[in-house]
Amino acid sequence: RLFVTAFNKLLVNKDEILANFDAMKEVLLNTSDLDQERTVLQKEMTVACEMIRQCVDENAQVTQDQNEYLSLYEGLVNRFETARQRFEDISTQLTDIHSRRNLMENYIDGLRKQEGLLSEFDEQLWYTLIDHVAVYSKHDVRVKFKDGTIIRV
Question: What is the maximum span of the chain, computed from C-alpha positions, in angstroms?
Fold first, then answer.
């Protein structure tokens, strides 16, 4: 009964929620800049890796000052590691954004499909739309939906 009441209160704002999601989706879930930076970093890692290989090969074939070699080698390794770390950070961000996109799209799809008020508990809607329920007291129960909306029932 609790879920039915909370969900029906949410449905009052269904059109507004759907419109807001559509308006904000591209801004909040856009990954084009991160995708582009990730591609650039991938190329940078490839270049740095090749330069490291050339540096090691040259050191093996030509007598050089080892302090200069180590300085060059360490600089190239640092260049690679800097790019690799940023690449991993971006990959993590992209994974997070894609997860949030899937979560929000599932939520919105569940909301879009619902026509009219609920008269009984719907387990599929529960799993699709509810983040959690917090019970503070007998008269203070709050349902948090996956879009962040909190409804006190």
Answer: 84
